[in-house]
Amino acid sequence: MDYKVNIGLEVHIELLTKNKMFCMCKSRFGDEENKNVCPICLALPGALPTPNKDAISLAIKTGIATNCKIDNKVLFDRKNYFYKDLPKGYQITQFYKPICTNGYINLENKKITIKEIHMEEDAGKIGKNNTIDYNRAGVPLLELVTMPDFENADEVIEFLKLLREILVFCNISDCKIQEGSMRVDINLSVRKENMPLGNRVEIKNVGSFKSIKKAINYEIKRHINLLEKGNSINIETRKFDENNNITVFMRNKETIEDYCYLKDPDIPPINLSEKFINSILNTMPMLPKEKREIYKQQYNLSQNNIDIILSSIKINNLFEDLINQNNPPKEVSNLICGELFKIINEHSLDISNINFNIKYISTLINIFLNNKISRDTYKSVFFEIIINNTNPIFFIEKNNLYLITDTNFIENIIIDIINKNPNSVNDYKNGKEKAFKYLVGQCMKAFKGKCNNNIINEILLKYIN
């Protein structure tokens, strides 16, 4: 029997603000436990929250980038629940009036509707020894909620990658899933074809794209197996066990009534002027989708290279900066996606710690494209620039790496090699291509790699024939 899968997402996004959502404490990952706390984020009696203007600006920026309607009035509500890492006993959020609604992101073959994006504060973090770190309590969050438009795991991953690109390139969030700055809850149901939506199961805080895909595929199979046996699907919250690649029961799913939402009496409404919203609109950068079109249509780059170039702002800036120096896009793309990432992977480098010298790299590309050095020299000098910030002209001259251009000298060497290898010459004339490759190798050895391969081939064929 055919089954229909419906998946919706709740994506929690930590914002790149210096301060927390409702106080002046630092919003920073990795600090000593409970270093960044104050009476407001610890919910001490009498402490009053003040909304962070930068967080509101980033929420608006996210809404613009995802084609949402922006509300001119900002209201905050209280979501009541009791966990050890929630100091107030409630979370300040937006329930009744989200700041962004009715947006969308287009996938390759379908449109995903964004129901809403609302602002809220993060909870603290329970440590391995059951200690509580309140550094994260009050950190600004966006929660992006989609409609249940996804039908499989591949669509979910495609959406999340596009969303992450938007958030990173607009400098809204660093989206480091491993640090919890992008967390995904999956709402999934399975039903028989032409039947109403099935009971929904939520999978909480899945820790990577790879695990998201595994969790969805496992849960679809689990639902179908239950339905095949005539069993019903329990409405519940589950978590993904990464060691065994299965989902496991976590708790029964809360309802809206359980949270007892109410308007926050401590935060008055905030009216957003059209001028304020337009000032944010005017600072929007070119979105990754637009860049993809340019890279594909104008530069004729491969899909794989486009993905790599857009994998981080720093790599994209490197690409754009080199293009702006009048270097051919395809050559720059191949250099970055091939040699640069080979160096990074082989030497376990962190991209954020590399200072790219645009002038040096651009000079090297120009030297290579003008046939002044071999491809092997090109690669080795590029390595020196990345690792040691070496001046390419100085390095090439010091090590005598420029290609030999004296035609008479080249011809004399090649004629000598032909005369010393009559058997190979005869073998080539008798149709053995390997013999010609051997002669090319002997020439390259004689020139120590400092002669253009095309020139060697041309002169060899001239004198052999």
How does this model look, in words?
With 465 residues, this protein is α+β, with helices and mostly antiparallel strands. It folds into three domains: 277 residues, no CATH class; 113 residues, no CATH class; 58 residues, Orthogonal Bundle (Arc Repressor Mutant, subunit A), CATH 1.10.10.410. 41% of the residues lie in helices and 19% in strands. The chain contains 16 helices and 16 strands. The strands form four sheets. The chain has a nine-stranded mixed β-sheet. A three-stranded antiparallel β-sheet has the order 5-4-15, with no helix packed on it. A two-stranded antiparallel sheet has the order 3-16. β8 and β9 form a beta hairpin. It is elongated and about 95 Å long.
Short key terms for the protein model shown above:
3 domains; Arc Repressor Mutant, subunit A; 9-stranded mixed β-sheet; 465 residues; single chain; 19% strand; 3-stranded antiparallel β-sheet; 16 strands; alpha+beta
Task: Give the distance, in angstroms, between the N- and C-terminal Cα atoms.
Answer: 71 Å
Total helical elements: 16
Described by the principal axes of the CA atoms, the overall outline is elongated
Percent helix range: 40-55%
Based on CA atoms alone, the radius of gyration comes out at 30 Å
Main sheet summary: 9 strands, mixed
Low-confidence stretches: none
The residue-averaged pLDDT reads 92
